[in-house]
Structures are given as C-alpha cells and as structure tokens.
Design a protein that fits this description.
This is Methylated-DNA-[protein]-cysteine S-methyltransferase DNA binding domain-containing protein. Keywords: DNA damage. One of its GO terms (biological process) is DNA repair. With 101 residues, this protein is mainly α. It has one domain (6-93): Orthogonal Bundle (Arc Repressor Mutant, subunit A). It has 5 helices and 4 strands, in the order αβααβαββα. The chain has helices at 6-18, 27-34, 39-48, 70-80, 91-94, and strands spanning 25-26, 58-59, 84-85, 88-89. The strands form 2 sheets. The chain has a two-stranded parallel sheet.
Length: 101
Amino acid sequence: MAKVTDDDVERVRGLVAAIPPGQVCTYGDLADAAGLSSPRIVGWIMRTDSADLPWHRVISASGRPPSHLASRQLSRLADEGAPVVDGRVVLRECRWSPPGR
C-alpha cells in the first residue's frame, strides 16, 4: 500500500463527512476524489479512523456491504431512506458524487 499521509486521511474524512443522509459513495469514488491510487487506501482509513463519521454511507461498488457489517449497515442506510433490495444498496438511485469527481 502507498504511504498514507495525514493530509490523505483528512481529505477522505472530509469527503465521508459530506455524504448526505440517504446517499452512499463507493470506496473508488472517494479514492478518485481524494487523489489516492487505490480504493483500498480508503478502506484502510475507514477501518482505522472513522468512528465519528457516517461510515455506513461508504460501500463497495457492488452495493453489497461486507458480511460482518451487512445487517447493521443496511439497516442504517434504509432508515435514512437509501434503497436497499435483496441485501444490496441500489447505487443508481442513491450514489453521491464527491466534489472534484
């Protein structure tokens, strides 16, 4: 993984904080908007520094959350009005585009 700077972390945090309720953003979209080389970097940042952020609004490009978070994440998103069908977020209806993307 590429070296992650404090500026990288703060850019990702700012983008995640800006995702409106009921909308989602993919790891790849966030990586592009933050100028990072890989969605995996966003995943690492989210795993290590997102307790105070709307982490549930960040999802894979498949729209399916990881199994260990699926029920919690999908429940939170549905409560906000995001469309969830068969255990998957309907990205075409609620995908948020970060500024600069």
